[in-house]
Structure formats: structure tokens, C-alpha cells
Description:
Layout: H1 2-27, H2 31-47, H3 52-74, H4 84-87, H5 90-110, H6 117-136, H7 140-158, H8 166-181, H9 185-201, H10 208-225, H11 232-235, H12 239-247
Helix pairs in contact: 1-2, 1-3, 2-3, 2-5, 3-5, 3-6, 5-6, 6-7, 6-8, 7-8, 8-9, 9-10
Amino acid sequence: MALHYKRDSQCFENGKNLVKKAAAFREKNMLEEAVLYADVASVLFEESNLSSEMVLPHLEICMAEMKETVLAMAGGRSNPFGTDDSIRYIPAIKNYTLPQMRLGSEKLKRHLRPTFTDETLLYIWCLHYIEYCEGLVGEMENQKKTLKKAICLMTTTFSQDACKHRVFGYFHHNLGVMYFKKNKLLKSFERLTIAVKAKSKATDYPNNTEKYSDITRTQTELQKLERTTCPFHEYKDSKAMRQSLEAYGLL
């Protein structure tokens, strides 16, 4: 028993070291290596056979590291894939990184204990990393499925307390942006409105500066609708809009 625990602990420590190396590779712009090391680290964490309490947070860290690496591949948030150097990464992201992230989220899901909502929240954050990357590379149908799955899971798990978690606002914001790109303007308005109200109620932002900056980001997206033919002025006071807000405890 002691021998097994020593082996499992060493496997766990090796995983932690690989995550650190993945972050170091990302900082040095060695992005393929960063993805590979984060992916291998997730395998080691799962194979460590240690408690869910120990393993799950580190699996989530692997997923977060892969998402940050994809963002680095894209060249940053302001103009993703705006250069030839960044565009060359898109096939690798679609064919390797995103499939491995989806597998990673399933690894984490296998360890979930249903009554531990903090563990479910880690899985939900992994869904955010996946949908964010799907959006970056234009996989809008996959992103839509991931977003709806995540929103459904949050409302099932947390009911009207879902909006206390900022990731709930992220999901609605990203769904609103996706609908805007698809010219589904009323749906975009609905989701972005929910996002602003949800973010306003979130209690887990690191600080108020970041919270209000994030709310402003969604309000900026709403302002884009003012330059379209979307009849949002009529829709915002409609019964359908009120029902959507009420469903999430945002009235």
C-alpha cells in the first residue's frame, strides 16, 4: 500500500512539474511544446489515483493552461488570428488541441462526485475553456453546443444562484457574440442582456475593477446592436425577455 501511494504521489508531482514547464514554454513562445506538456500532465494527474479533491483542481489547471496557449497561438484577444504566423496554428488547434481539451474535460468529469458542487464548477470552467477556443477558431456550432450544455449544467446545479459565478455571465456573453456573428440579433440582444445582469450579480470576481471592466465589455457588444436594424427597443420590455430574465433570477 505504501509503495503504491509513493508511486501515485510521484506521478502527481511529475504532473505538477510538467504544468510548470508548459507555462514556461508558453512564455518562451514554444507553443506546441506547451500544449503537449499540459496534455501529458493531465494524463499523469489522472493516473496518480489520488483523491478527487487533489486531482480535480490540477486537471482544471491543465485545461486552463491549454486555453491560454491557444490564445497565445491566436496572437492575443484584440485581433485573434490576424497574422499569417498565427493562422498557421489553426489546423493544429482544431485537430489536436481542442480534441485533447475535450478528452481532458471528460477525465475531470469521471472524477466528479455529484453532491460536491465545487467540483462540478471546475468541470464547468473546463467547458468555458473549450467553448472559448472553439469560438476563436470559428467552430461556432461546436461552441453553441458547449455553451448550451454549460448553461444547462449551471442552472441544474446552482439554480438561480448560477449568476453568482462570473463564468455564467461569460457563457451568455459568448453566446450573444456568436448569435451576433450569425445575424440572429434578437437572440444576441437577449443573451448579452442576461450577461450584463448576471455579471452584475457575480460575487467571485477578483476585484471590482475587473468586474466593471467585464460588464463594460458586454455593454460594448450591446452597443453594436444599436447600429443594426434589430428591434431590440421593443423586445427588451417584452414578455419573452422578462421570462428569460426571471428564469435566471435576474428580474
